Amino acid sequence: MQKKGLNNILILGAIAIFGIIVLQLYWLAMTWKIKNHEFYERVNISLRIVAEKMADKTDVVLPKKDLIKQLSSNAFLVNYNDVIQPDILEDLLIQELDRVVPNFTFEYAVYDCHNNDLKFGNCCMEDGKDKEKLFKKLPDDDKYTYYFIVRFPDKNLFLLYNLKLFVLLGLFAIIVVFAYLYAIKSIYRQRKLSELQKDFVDNMTHEFKTPLTSIKLASEVIGNNEKVNSDPRLKKYSSIITQQSEKLTSHIERLLDLIRSDEKFKLKLEKMNLVDTVKNVISGMEHSLNHQNVELKFTYPKEDIMIEADKYHFSNVLYNIIENAAKYNTNDDKKIRVNISEENDKYNLSIKDNGIGIANENLNNIFKKFFRVQSGDVHDVKGFGLGLYYVKNIINLHNWSILVKSKEKKGTIFTIIINKTI
Fold first, then answer.
1. Are the C-beta atoms of 413 and 352 separated by less than 8 Å?
2. Distance between CA 281 and CA 246 in Å, rounded?
3. DSSP assigned state of 285
4. How far is residue 252's CA from residue 255's CA, in Å, rounded to a whole number?
5. Is 45 helix (H, G, I), strand (E, B) or coil?
6. Which phi and psi (to 5°) does residue 71 adopt?
7. 232-260 vs 311-327: helix axis angle to the nearest 10?
8. Are residues 147 and 243 in the same domain?
9. Does one domain contain both 157 and 174?
10. How many contiguous H segments (helices) and E segments (strands) does the chain have?
11. Total-model pTM
């Protein structure tokens, strides 16, 4: 992924997460405000009913204004205007408050005008038992002569419980933020490692290509020497040096292609004969295959098969698959069968071997970058784990597909499905 594109994605992600968090905080604040107001309304109605019922029993006329006053966020004063009987008050408070705010803890106090002080009643808990008073002092008000005060010490906890869904969403958002930050850190670290790897390979291949070019030029000069050409043994050695230097140069170019396969590049599509291209690849590998005692047979239709592809990269794809078929084979009679067949609007190019095969649990991973099967004889074969990753990328760029079938100790079949475009 390009650095600019990655940065844009990270910025958009950060903006989206920030927006979600701000929106959640806003809704949490608004919901808290609504719940707080709802709580006030419930308590106000309940305390008004308590005062009215007490007044009915004692024929007391309640004040028409300022009957209920909110002293703090969780404390309310009720101006009764007459002597208050604590026992009746407690019964009515428990009855009415439990109806509008079920299972809620509250404490109350009655103002004693003779002592000019508040006299505590009980602290009524949700389990119906009287407990020790939660507070030693309640707020008072010297404007009134007869009144009682009710306080809800667990009000905030009650509201938080009603907002538990929003609280859970907030915690989830925090987890998402930390996960996002960790993902950013991992992405940048991976990108840095990828850049270091690419720089290393680029430098390494450059250092290799420079002496190889010199070797190739020197071998060509030696090969053109009359004395060398007149000596069959020297001529053979000179030819070997030239061939091997060209082979090593080809390997380096292929390695560069494998590393560059991470980058987006355009294919140089051209019309080509599929059969001739496969023949050329096989011909170029003939010496190596003979050295490994591999028997390769190629079967194909008699008519020409024209396709549109990038000849260079397509040849590398075939080279990789055939090379793997030869390497991952421990049989004395190594066999590779290459076949081209036609099916409806597609051509099927299959490469079959009788090698060690691939376990089912590894089939889904063989096209992943740097993946190598680390079991059995496969562990003894050297490689970077990039060949099939490159193959898959090139196949995808051509809008083709590739299928793999394999059985352990039986062999593997790679089938490239090529679309007819000509």
1. yes
2. 15
3. H
4. 5
5. helix
6. -80, -35
7. 110
8. no
9. no
10. 10, 13
11. 0.49
Local structure of 193: helix, strand or coil: helix
Q: How far apart are CA 358 and CA 360, in angstroms?
A: 6
Question: Residue 265 domain-assigned?
Answer: no
Of 162, 180, 210, which residue sits at a domain end?
162
- Answer yes or no: is pLDDT of 135 > 60: no
The tokens describing 197, both together, are 């790897």
Residue 43: the pLDDT is 86
- Which residue in 375, 367, 371, 369 sits closest to 404, CA to CA? 367
* C-alpha Rg value of the chain to the nearest Å: 43
Helix axis angle, 86-100 relative to 3-58, nearest 10°? 140
Cβ within 8 Å of residue 237, ≥6 positions away: none
* Domain carrying residue 39: 3-162
Residue 64: helix, strand or coil by DSSP? coil
With contact defined as beta carbons under 8 Å apart, do 356 and 362 qualify? no
Of 24-38, 67-81, 239-253, 383-397, the least confident: 239-253
Measured CA to CA, the distance from residue 379 to residue 372 in angstroms comes to 8
Give the pLDDT confidence of 95-120 residue by residue, as tens digits: 888 777 666 778 888 876 666 666 66
Could you give the number of structural domains in the chain? 3
Residue whose C-alpha is closest to residue 330's, from 297, 360, 353, 298? 353
pLDDT tens for 184-227 read 788 778 777 777 777 777 777 777 777 888 888 888 888 888 88
Residues 158 and 168 in one domain: no
283 vs 120, more confident: 283
CA 177 – CA 183 distance, rounded (Å): 10
For the chain, give the number of residues.
422
Average pLDDT over residues 276-281: 93
Structure tokens at 140: 């008072």
pLDDT, average across residues 154-170:
75
Q: Could you tell me if 366 and 321 are in contact, meaning their C-beta atoms sit under 8 angstroms apart? A: no
Closest CA to 352 of 331, 378, 321: 321
Look at residues 162, 181, 198 and tell me which one is the last residue of a structural domain: 162
CA quadruple 127, 133, 135, 140: dihedral sign: positive
Rounded to whole angstroms, how far apart are CA atoms 151 and 36?
Answer: 15
Task: Provide the token pair at 389.
Answer: 């990753």
Q: Where are the beta strands (DSSP E) in 152-255?
A: none
Instruction: Measure the CA–CA gap between 415 and 405, rounded to whole angstroms.
Output: 8
Relative orientation angle of helices 387-397 and 311-327, to the nearest 10 degrees? 150
How many CB atoms neighbour CB 389 within 10 A?
A: 20
pLDDT digits (tens, 9 = 90+) for 76-86: 888 887 888 88
